[in-house]
Amino acid sequence: MTGFSESKQMAEFAGAHGLPGFSPTQGHIASAVPYLPHAIAGLTSGTMQRVQFVAKASLFLGRMTGAGDGASLMIERNPALTH
Length: 83
Hints:
This protein has helices at about 5-15, 35-45, 60-65; strands spanning about 50-55, 70-75.
C-alpha cells in the first residue's frame, strides 16, 4: 500500500475499504471466502451477474517446490430465475 507509513493510517484504510469477515488462512481461495455472503446477496438481488474468486499462487510453495499453484472460481446468477 503505497503512501501508508503509520499503522494508524493502515487501520483507517482497512476500515474504509475492507470487508467484514474472517479468513483463517492467507492466499488461495480461502482468503476470498469472507466475500461469499456479499456475492450471494448481490447475485440474489440482481445487482451482480457474476462473481469471480481468484486464488493467487502460493509464493512459499512455489519457492519450495518450483511448482506453481492457483485456482479461480466463478459463480453466476441463474438467468432462469430472472424476472
